[in-house]
């Protein structure tokens, strides 16, 4: 089953009757992917594309198990201590008048303007969670928002994109994992011809006329060296934390007061530092001095480990610059020009990055940044910038190393946050412009093979070191932690080895500082490598044997080779037709998925050009596709699908047969009866429920319903919603949810949440929810509910009022299995109170049902939502969680809730 979003006035349905839609599959639903979708929708409404789409609409399949819009990296449920490294006014995912694009500009609010719109009531908040709303409403232009607030901004943006799509463009979100790519149509991938087929983890494959691979950052499988580090830690009772996102790191393995070696001082380290200090109860307080107004002191909680930190450079990324957008007098490039680059090309039109390009960059910096040293012949260009503690070498005691690192951080804060800060701001702005220029002028395909490793990765590392550093107060916190003894500096050129003789990790800085510890943390993101990615599709691209569709880039080791139009290069060096790829695991120079407003941001320019190329390819139909049929039979119409269903299902096992039919049905939005017929035939019941994404139905997207739907979507569930709102309204409110008629809700969902008022629920047709596991989330409030309950008791002969309201609902919905749950948590708490399974204070939700299997199924859903289920027993026990009863109020853990219930039972 798939998450279907229909937007527009229905034009797509009318066009689909005449011709099957062109099917664009996008693997990945994070910011980069949705930026392309936004540009597709914007250009699709222009006259040159609108008429073509009237003839043949465009259907977009987005594949991502994570929340569409924010994706895996930006999560609304992560710690509020994890911050953006840009100020709120400097973050926007919208195009603006400075962006040089062929498509239309569709302006929108920056992160700061979005927060202000919510404060003013002009923009609907994308959350009801109290903590998150407080963060949004307190966010100012110069503040550094939490990453979870950015996730909400991205979710909201995707909702706006879906709601604004023209009727000729439709979107389906598949909450699953793509596992492979093959040319042409594969068994179970629908009828007709297809350029590509995308294999999915828990359902039938998807056919694609056009395919865009847009996965974001992924984890890597352990290298041999990291595997040995983990094995060493296990043998000796220590701990090794490999590269990961900070929110995924198993920090509970690091004990209070324990010495921990940390490799890496970039943004990953800053995140871990926050979680291991403030996240464990420590507190920073202002301790200003005349020469250091931002100075802080740290009061330890006693739960912190002691962090011994080092890296190649031995210092953290540069602080963000104060007022970074103010004019600095930068002029047009004098050295990094198209003419100078062309003059350095060899006879094949190729460049060597370090020999040909880097000297031009160094000369540009020397010419435009006050105080920057001029390049010296024979010396490494920009070594002064890339290795600021190169002078700290040889045998030195810890105090020398400590003083060098502390002085460097203090000087960096002065230069970037105090006084005029013109040179630092100029350097910041110049590197930003240089990075944008290289995006345009220096695709990896223009580099000689000798540039391996230098570009894009070395350059991007230097750019990030200077321009993508943390908020200034994070470096003030680092200094405070050093003074408090929680952090110790190892210095530059840190090396770590595992010593079997002692069973400890030993770290040594380049200047002689040495420490041993039982715990080691690699505080950086996993390296982008196709062959070692945990993503099966990325590995399959180049390791698929004779079926490999791409090749590793010579200029960017470990990355997928793409040309300057993002087209995938086949193993034989040709361009793969109708296959594009973007992201950190490709050979393109890495760019952000969002950017500072009014900077002609490269991400917007690239997204727009790619979107228009996709639309042009869609308008050309099947011509040029691998194994393509004639244009007239391009994929078949949905009438053809009816004729082919039997043959498609014949060779499949039960799960594949079920999902194949669902895949066919979801693409026919104008005929829900066709899908209903397939569902009633029992095909969906064939798929093993433990092997696919759970499907949650929701009846009534009011306050509690919307909060539950958002939480479920962020937890990776597929959510079907039945309500009165139009599809575009629902898409904006709950991006990724599926508008579903009430008649289809039970058949398309594993569990249905009843979130309408109780008196409305008691008037619904019982046949509509026949066969459903129905979770009663209602509470009797107000006169209408009271009257409805009285009438229901009279009808049931309950003259003494002994039945719970859930039992009354069970008598009404005679064909459903009713479970009482989720009625004793406020809608404003649902999005805030969820915790991971091992959290000691995870909140419990009571569950009451006369059916043990139904109660267990609901318990599994609650676990996905971030809550423990506390089973009370029969549906009659649900009376204890009605308003005014003993278990209705208060946050309790499962053990506490059970204890309270047992006490109530004893008293009774």
TrEMBL record:
- Where would I find the FAD-dependent urate hydroxylase HpyO/Asp monooxygenase CreE-like FAD/NAD(P)-binding domain in this sequence? 25-217
Instruction: Locate the region Disordered.
Output: 619-640
Matches recorded under Pfam families: F420_oxidored, NAD_binding_9
Which segments constitute the Pyrroline-5-carboxylate reductase catalytic N-terminal domain?
A: 695-780
Q: What is this protein called?
A: Putative dinucleotide-binding enzyme/uncharacterized NAD(P)/FAD-binding protein YdhS
